[in-house]
Amino acid sequence: MRLLIAEDELWLRKRLVSTIDWSSYGISKVYEAEDGGEALEIALKEKPDIVITDIRMPELSGIDLMKKLNENSIFSKMIVVSGYDDFEYAQGALRMGAINYLLKPVDEEELLDSVKRCVEELKKEKNKETVFDKQSAASEMLMEHIYEDLIFETSEKRTEELLQKLSRKEIGFPFQSAAVVNMQVREHTFFVNDKVKSDMWSVYQWLRRNLQEDCYECQYLYMRGSQIVLLLFGDDPEAKFMERVENWVQLILEALQKELNISLFMAAGDVTDDFSGIHRSYEMAQKKIKEKRAEEKRILALRNQETEQELNTRFDDVYGEYDFKLLIKEIRNGDSEKAQTELQAILQSSSRRLQSADMMKLQLFYMNFINRIAGACLPECEAYADELAMQCMTVMRELIYIGSDTIVTEMWDCLRKFVEKLVEVYQENNGKRKHWMIDQVLQYVEENYNTALSTRDIAGRFFMNTSYFSKLFHEQMGCTFSNYLINVRVEKAKMMLTQTNMKLYDIAEAVGYTNVQYFSTIFKEKEGLTPSAFRQMRSAVKDEYTGK
Description:
Layout: E1 2-6, H1 10-18, E2 29-33, H2 36-46, E3 50-54, H3 62-71, E4 77-82, H4 87-95, E5 100-103, H5 108-127, H6 134-152, H7 156-168, E6 177-185, H8 192-210, E7 218-224, E8 227-234, H9 238-259, E9 264-268, H10 277-310, H11 315-319, H12 325-333, H13 336-353, H14 359-377, H15 382-402, H16 407-428, H17 436-448, H18 455-461, H19 466-477, H20 481-499, H21 504-510, H22 516-527, H23 531-546
Parallel strand pairs: 1-2, 1-3, 3-4, 4-5
Antiparallel strand pairs: 6-8, 6-9, 7-8
Helix pairs in contact: 2-3, 6-10, 8-21, 12-13, 12-16, 13-16, 14-15, 14-16, 15-16, 20-23
């Protein structure tokens, strides 16, 4: 058997080539390539049985290399290695048929296990004398991409051209009926974007494992953003096929709720018997989900309205309408006088609306008040905001526990000191971030920290040279972009560890790490504790403060 190692990092490539006794795994020849272009050239000539490839390489990426090999009817067993822990890379690699997706630093034992799997599969194919029709496999992969374009219709012009080509080549619709099923996770109270993405990835992986090949005559599974889409084919007439799909949808919903504890919106579009109707079926499925969301919100609004009539003071009323933007802006500007003015305006407004609130509502109001401000100041003053917030909350709890006639005045004084200390932090750093671009970069990171971000990606997004951007960011922020991104992710993880019961691997995925072990290592380097130990410590502190 022949092995090709495509890796642009010289030290890693030489380590894999030279330090492992490949012959003991049944591999007689090892080739190496320093970029994607060279790897393709070698693969076209030598047709390796197994390929270990990096995702990011000059000339040709690992995903593109896999596509090129498939286009040339070379179906090597693929093992993908990457330093970019992103759902899209893993999804793309798995969709292209990769045996495994490994994160750097590469664990040698895990790599060799993947190689063993490849060797075993190759031996089975040879022993059984399986005749693998490469042209048919390539055609099936091509149809999968064609259906993807038809479903999502990313370009009307491209879709029209595609339909014309299908017509010219006289490719008939493969089955009597087809329908698109759309799945979207219901919104969550906390960390909506992170939790939705984590849940959808779990559902996608579950479906990959559990969709039975004989469930439908043909089926295709796609993940796009915060939705999962299934294209199902069958030989039943329209009415019977729709009944079959709707029954299947109900079974899947129940199974996901039972096994993953994930509640979905799930709907099937209209049945079609031609290529042009696939996108219409997808749009109808989306429309049904939109209607389900609207109906659920309507019912929830009615319930809230009924509850409101029963309560003298609702927490949402006294908290939800406040605008903290001006206060946060003045804190960041380091303007103490204006910050205190904005704080006073909010507190005076709250005083009028909290007159009939009990101590529990007061505590909830002020705790959320502190969290809102501290969260807006992270991670730019990460060394202080979290600690100051905990100190302020501790004082608040003590005031509520002791109780006094002047408790509101004492709480206000505590909040003023909290804001004053935050302002001092920003005053110390005042003038360091003068470049127009940095705030935009920080905002972009805040909104996209759970995706694959690199210095090169950010520099390209803001039309800057990578080296210049790296230097500018370090000068303005006092750290590298990579360290800043890690700090943001760790802070988000700390919030989830403290305020939710999410599992560790869900939190890791929610903040942008698909490898929970790597996430734990990064977290410990930053916090001095593992994520589990951090959660236990915060839980113990919380119990101590609440007297539990």
